[in-house]
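Structure tokens please, single chain.
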Amino acid sequence: YDDFWFINHGKYRIPIVKIGDQVYSGFNMGAGENTLFEVFSIIYGCPKGVLIVIDEIELGLHEEALVRFIKELKNISKDQKFQIIATTHSQSVLRNIPPIGRYYLENVGERTIITDSITALYAAGKLAGENSNEIDIFVEDGTAKRILELALSTEIRNRVNILAIGSSSAIARQMAARYKNIKEGECMAI
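Here you go.
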């Protein structure tokens, strides 16, 4: 954006932006883009050192916009000495926040349990009500799988995927294949 301003009419205000020679208003923006202008205008209107709370920070934004938004918020908060607390259901948002800044809150019975420094994948799994499978663990057979399941705590078992692969050479081939295609996720062999 080359320029940005608001037009006020009664209790309403509409963002106007300029990109090159093109000018358009909030009427021609998506909900997420419109929200970003509101958020940034509020942030830049605040004095240094404030606490900003944003509920469901990901609403109306696609993945690339979220990543850019979080990056910009980190830069602004550092420059302006802000602290930002945001709620999210987005793994993309969580991945772009340092682990020290991530907290997962859940109600269990009458208690609220807070998990700090949670991985984005584990949080996403918990939000979806399923195992996060943060790492695949390759073992030789069903017996090794059962031994490992019994050795790990319930919390850790909910975070991993234990796979009986076969012989040690089969495990080595799986590890090599995973190394070539890391997009399939982290893994280890026992």
